DNA sequence: AACCTTTCCAACCGCAGGTAT
DNA sequence: GATACCTGCGGTTGGAAAGGT
């Protein structure tokens, strides 16, 4: 069997996009909309693979892409979200309107990871030295956080304990998959989880059945994007809103204590 | 000025989940 | 249910640009 290769065509263009290719792609998507990436290159007359077109559009050509320096506020948010979510770049990017997952991933790998690992003695030569130092300093000495392991899988529901002192063990979707380490797995392997019957009254008495954490993230992300795109939110309102979202998220993950510690450190 | 090293970022690759047939 | 295809994600790479010697 085996997978069909992404690009069947030999001699398909690779590497940097030309201005002409950008124009063709933009014009095509403006006329026909996004999607159908596999057939798009042929229809648009581009000698590129569909994946490449999608990436170019998503990371560069799409309207609303914010380019340029990451602000200290954005950096602070990235660091905090990374503490909670790990390398879930698309989720992190979803909370930074105009930023792409690729950009955040690159920024993390090239700047933040080094700074947070204590390599701040060698500031990046392309980075403004004053930029973002404060936020990095705040988090550098912090203990290794519980992070959601990458490549997590979805499960259909999450049980969150109402007892704030006893979060994770009651939550099958949040229980650690490898007890030997401290990593927190957002979702367990679907097949391994015995999902509780929500109609079991005794269970409902003691626990609150909620959509799973990823569903919450999707929901809040969509809400933020919608409000931002529809002009219902001014940029200045974004920070407090995100702060609230983060608090909700930490609550959902059962990490309120750590979050409070962070706030204390920040103060 | 020339060469070497480092940094950054756009793009590629492979994998996994979702959906259609 | 099995298979094929589509899409999105995260890790990695390659090359241009900047800095250092």
TrEMBL record:
<dbReference type="InterPro" id="IPR015495">
    <property type="entry name" value="Myb_TF_plants"/>
</dbReference>
<dbReference type="InterPro" id="IPR009057">
    <property type="entry name" value="Homeodomain-like_sf"/>
</dbReference>
<dbReference type="GO" id="GO:0006355">
    <property type="term" value="P:regulation of DNA-templated transcription"/>
</dbReference>
<keyword id="KW-0539">Nucleus</keyword>
<protein>
    <submittedName>
        <fullName>MybPA2, putative</fullName>
    </submittedName>
</protein>
<feature type="domain" description="HTH myb-type">
    <location>
        <begin position="9"/>
        <end position="61"/>
    </location>
</feature>
<dbReference type="GO" id="GO:0000976">
    <property type="term" value="F:transcription cis-regulatory region binding"/>
</dbReference>
<feature type="domain" description="Myb-like">
    <location>
        <begin position="62"/>
        <end position="112"/>
    </location>
</feature>
<dbReference type="Pfam" id="PF00249">
    <property type="entry name" value="Myb_DNA-binding"/>
</dbReference>
<dbReference type="InterPro" id="IPR017930">
    <property type="entry name" value="Myb_dom"/>
</dbReference>
<keyword id="KW-0677">Repeat</keyword>
<dbReference type="GO" id="GO:0030154">
    <property type="term" value="P:cell differentiation"/>
</dbReference>
<keyword id="KW-0238">DNA-binding</keyword>
<feature type="domain" description="HTH myb-type">
    <location>
        <begin position="62"/>
        <end position="116"/>
    </location>
</feature>
<dbReference type="InterPro" id="IPR001005">
    <property type="entry name" value="SANT/Myb"/>
</dbReference>
<feature type="domain" description="Myb-like">
    <location>
        <begin position="9"/>
        <end position="61"/>
    </location>
</feature>
<dbReference type="GO" id="GO:0005634">
    <property type="term" value="C:nucleus"/>
</dbReference>
């Amino acid at each position: 069997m085996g997978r069909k290769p992404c690009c069947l065509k030999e001699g398909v263009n690779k590497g940097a996009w030309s201005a002409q290719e950008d124009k063709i792609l933009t014009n095509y998507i403006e006329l026909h909309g996004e999607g159908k990436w596999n057939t798009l290159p042929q229809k648009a007359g581009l000698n590129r693979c569909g994946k490449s077109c999608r990436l170019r559009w998503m990371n560069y050509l799409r309207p609303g892409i914010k380019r340029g320096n990451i602000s200290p506020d954005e950096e602070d948010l990235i660091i905090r979200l990374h503490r909670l979510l790990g390398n879930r770049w698309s989720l992190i990017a979803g909370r930074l309107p105009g930023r792409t997952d690729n950009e955040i991933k690159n920024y993390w790998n090239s700047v933040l990871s080094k700074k947070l690992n204590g390599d701040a003695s060698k500031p990046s030569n392309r980075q403004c030295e004053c930029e973002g130092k404060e936020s990095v300093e705040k988090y550098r000495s912090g203990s290794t956080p519980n992070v959601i392991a990458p490549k997590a899988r979805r499960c259909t529901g999450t049980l969150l304990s109402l007892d704030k002192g006893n979060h994770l063990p009651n939550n099958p979707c949040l229980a650690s998959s490898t007890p030997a380490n401290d990593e927190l797995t957002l979702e367990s392997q679907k097949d391994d989880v015995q999902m509780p019957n929500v109609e079991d009254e005794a269970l409902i008495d003691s626990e609150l059945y909620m959509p799973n954490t990823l569903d919450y993230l999707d929901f809040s992300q969509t809400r933020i994007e919608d409000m931002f795109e529809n002009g219902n939110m001014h940029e200045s309102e974004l920070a407090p809103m995100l702060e609230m979202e983060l608090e909700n998220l930490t609550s959902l993950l059962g990490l309120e204590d750590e979050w409070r510690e962070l706030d204390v450190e920040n103060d």
